[in-house]
Amino acid sequence: DDSADAIPxxxxxxxxxxxxxxxxxxxxxxxDSSVGPDEEQGAVDTSKDPKEKEELRATGSAAFxxxxxxxxxxxxxxxxxxxxxxQTFKERVAAEPxxxxxxxxxxxxxxxxxGENIPEEKDIPNCLCGAKRIFEFQVMPQLLNHxxxxxxxxxxxxxxxxxxxCADNCGxxxxxxxxxxxxxxxx
Length: 187
Fold this sequence. Notes:
Blueprint lengths: L49 H16 L3 H27 L5 E3 L29 E7 L3 H5 L12 E7 L13 E5 L3
Antiparallel strand pairs: 1-2, 2-3, 3-4
């Protein structure tokens, strides 16, 4: 009976199999682009009615007047830094929305999803051989969509998983070695 040996389509211990294509990332801003990386494009106001615009301005002004200047400045500083990091992440993901792994051993570092929980050099332990570990690749959150983990009952989640490996590449032969992974969640 072949049905007893059949592998179910999806279960707790078996994830679907996919082919991973390896392609270089395209530069964010091509050399002939008229928009530079430091230039920002503002939102377009689609409202046509001048009276409606004035009402929106008045409502917004009244709401912000109730907050003191120090509170507004603190909010703006926090939002700006955090938003900038997440915006950078979103822009890179938008260029390749199906990308599940970013590989760049020793080169450009990972793309963080948040300004919180970014490791410092002291947070990344040295390899068992004593050499420092360096960034090798990161697993992007888009992989979660492909693994269909929401149907497991207990969800698995991350913002990014960053893998650091031995700078000296100390492993000999085909043996597996322990490496270090840093998990950053969406804040």
